[in-house]
Specification:
CATH class: Alpha Beta
Largest sheet: 5 strands, mixed, barrel
Shape: globular
Number of strands: 17
Oligomer: single chain
Number of helices: 4
Radius of gyration: 18 Å
CATH superfamily: Inorganic pyrophosphatase
Structural class: alpha+beta
Strand order of the largest sheet: 5-10-12-14-13
CATH topology: Inorganic Pyrophosphatase
Strand content: 25-35%
EC number: 3.6.1.1
Family: Belongs to the PPase family.
Number of domains: 1
CATH architecture: Alpha-Beta Complex
Distance between the termini: 22 Å
Helix content: 10-25%
Cofactor: Mg(2+)
Enzyme class: hydrolase
Pfam families: Pyrophosphatase
Order of helices and strands: EEEEEEEEEEEEEEHHEHEEH
Amino acid sequence: MMSHYSNREFGASNSTDYRMYIMQQDQPISPFHDIPLVHSPPSIMNMVVEIPRWSNAKMEICKEEILNPIKQDVKKGKLRFVNNVFPHKGYIWNYGALPQTWEDPSHVDPDTKSKGDNDPIDVCEIGSRILARGSIVPVKILGILAMIDEGNFLSKITLLIVWASDYPLLHIDDVEKHMPGFLQATREWFRNYKVPTGKPKNEFAFDGNFKNREFALKIVNQTHEQWKKLVTEKTDFTGLYKYVNGNFIYMSQAHFFHLRGSSY
């Protein structure tokens, strides 16, 4: 984790009570809004790690709660875990998101003809280390894969392929050269990971091809602009949240507890 960030955990793991808050100088901040997107221009970004490699619990930045803690996703009252997809165990990369990005569900992407998934842009970090949940790490943008999640809804999940190592990978083609077969394994994992739950295979835009770094950076910039629009347009009277596609999204309130005299 970058040295000026830390985290605090509350509640038991694998429970609906679990929350991890990101801290800066001993104050809670939002990993969605308060961590800068760019670490070192033009292509080194900050990544918020939600799910360490080879783990199964589906953790995510919670847009619907104040300070946007990391929590385990719940569907129909049950905690969500990803199934193992043979021959892999859990997530095959460190999985997370880029702060200060948002895939606008009202925006129809001209390339894929699908809408955003109402989340920060997703990130697969393919280095050799296991990164801890809540880590904030600088990553190189290498390329991008666009998955159409549950195609009937035409919801696009943009999957950035990134690298947190000093090893000289610069482009998506370098991945195949130094890690042969890994991009194919990534594509097949995303194609099949919902099949054990009875859902159909996922589909991809661009015939399942990975797009290059330049294309990926264009998408990152677009989602950053969509985030700017999200946080600058009029919200409710408290300034804390806005209502998007039937869900509340809480805005940046790093000093929320301090201002209200609450203990933390």
